[in-house]
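Researcher: Here's a chain I'd like modeled. Treat it as a single chain, no partners, no ligands.
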Amino acid sequence: MDKKQQALVGKAKEAALQVLLHNNHGAYRNLPRTAGWAYPEPYTRDLMICSLGILTTQNKRLLKSLRRVLETLANNQSMLGHIPSLVHDPQDKGSSDTTLCFLWLSEFTERS
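Model: Modeled as a single isolated chain. Structure tokens:
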């Protein structure tokens, strides 16, 4: 990779970090928002995808926020193990992939 490409990659990393930091606190129980400047809800699937970027940054504020998300999800897990679509709402069972995303990330972070 030449210097121009490295500079572009550096700018992209910084821009991504700024979006993650902006999203760090949302309108619902101070959980992160998931869509930059669009909607404020803490959607589980989106946050699990964002977690890959958060883990890459190793930013302490973001990691603390991710821990809060995972703990809230674990506390809102149903008796049958279902993870809600909205992190803060144990009654929101609208998505079938949130449990898989949660389990995948939980296992991944345990090994890190």
